[in-house]
């Protein structure tokens, strides 16, 4: 699973270097500055977040709105992207 967005300060290229520092056990995952969500998507794709409480946040309301739209209204997002592609 890859991040939906490219983001300044994104960690996607750093994941192999960061992975050895992931805790072996944890109950919840808090991401205060989600940005592209590279670490979150990596953990989710490996199953390490299964059964855990996950909280993603960011001060950028547009970014959070984007993630909420993808989560809550994926068909509308796909339709809007198709419309942009046609323009």
What does this protein structure show overall?
There is one protein chain. The protein is mainly alpha-helical and 87 residues long. The protein has four helices and two strands. α3 crosses α4. The protein has a two-stranded parallel sheet.
What keyword list fits this structure?
9% strand, two-stranded parallel ribbon, 4 helices, 87 residues, mainly alpha, globular
How would you summarize this macromolecular structure in one to three sentences?
Helix content is 43%, strand content 9%. With 87 residues, it is mainly alpha-helical. The model has no long low-confidence stretch (mean pLDDT 91).
User: What is the averaged pLDDT score?
Assistant: 91
Termini Cα gap: 28 Å
What is the H-and-E element order? HEHEHH
Q: Please report which band the strand proportion falls in: under 5%, 5-15%, 15-25%, 25-35%, 35-45% or over 45%.
A: 5-15%
The class by helix and strand makeup works out as mainly alpha
Strand order of the largest sheet: 1-2
Q: How many β strands by DSSP?
A: 2
Helix proportion range:
40-55%
Radius of gyration from CA coordinates: 15 Å
Number of H- or I-type helical stretches: 4
- Can you summarize the main beta sheet? 2 strands, parallel
* Outline type: globular
Low-confidence stretches: none
């Amino acid at each position: 699973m890859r991040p939906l967005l490219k983001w300044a300060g994104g960690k996607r290229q750093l994941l192999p270097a960061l992975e050895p520092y992931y805790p072996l056990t944890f109950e919840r995952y808090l991401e205060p500055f989600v940005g592209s969500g590279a670490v979150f998507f990596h953990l989710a794709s490996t199953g390490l977040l299964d059964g855990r409480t996950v909280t993603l946040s960011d001060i950028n309301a547009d970014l959070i709105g984007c993630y909420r739209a993808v989560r809550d209204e994926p068909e509308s997002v796909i339709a809007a992207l198709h419309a942009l592609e046609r323009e």
